[in-house]
Amino acid sequence: MACTSANKEAAMDNVSREVTIKARHNGPYLVTGPIRLIDADGSEYYLQEGVNVALCRCGHSATKPFCDGTHKTGGFEAPERCLCMLDARPREETV
Predict the structure, then answer these.
(1) Are 55 and 15 in contact (CB under 8 A)?
(2) Contact 67/77 with Cβ under 8 angstroms?
(3) What confidence tens digit (pLDDT) does each residue in 39-90 have?
(4) Does residue 50 contact residue 11 with C-beta atoms inside 8 Å?
(5) CA-based nearest residue to 36, from 51, 47, 21
(6) How many beta carbons lie within 10 A of that of residue 9, not counting itself?
(7) 5 by DSSP, 3-state: which?
(8) Which DSSP string do the residues of 43-74 spell out, in sequence order?
(9) 9-46 pLDDT, tens per residue?
(10) Residue 48, exposed/middle/buried by CB under 10 A (0-12, 13-18, 19+)?
(11) What is the gyration radius of the CA atoms in the chain, in angstroms?
């Protein structure tokens, strides 16, 4: 998912749209864009609205920060619920 000027512009045009981060059961964080992700080396990745990316949370992925599925064979067990450090409350979903 290399950074290109086309997907950068599309992602930045949608910057006011909602970003969703979902913790998968014993798996990665599933992020739905638009987002700009900057890795530890400073490389930038742009994700357009409606596109998903899985981010590693087990620490064993060879493609960090992206998930490569290693959590499935590495015995990763995530906490069942978020241990909130912020004063955030679950939002009721509207249908």
Answers:
(1) no
(2) no
(3) 889 999 998 888 899 999 999 999 999 999 999 998 899 876 766 665 556 5
(4) no
(5) 47
(6) 12
(7) helix
(8) -EEEE-BT-EEEE--SS--TTTTB--SGGGTT
(9) 655 555 557 899 999 999 999 999 899 999 889 999 99
(10) middle
(11) 15
Residue in this structure with the two tokens 């981060």, named with its chain if needed: 21
Question: What sign results for the dihedral spanned by CA atoms 39, 91, 14, 10?
Answer: positive
Neighbours of 11 (CB within 10 A): 23
First-residue to last-residue Cα distance in the chain: 32
Q: Which CATH number fits domain 5-72: 3.30.1120, 3.40.5, 1.10.3470, 1.10.1660?
A: 3.40.5
CB-count exposure of residue 35 (10 Å: 0-12, 13-18, 19+): buried
DSSP label at residue 27: S
pTM of full prediction above 0.85: no
Q: Which two tokens stand for residue 7?
A: 């997907």
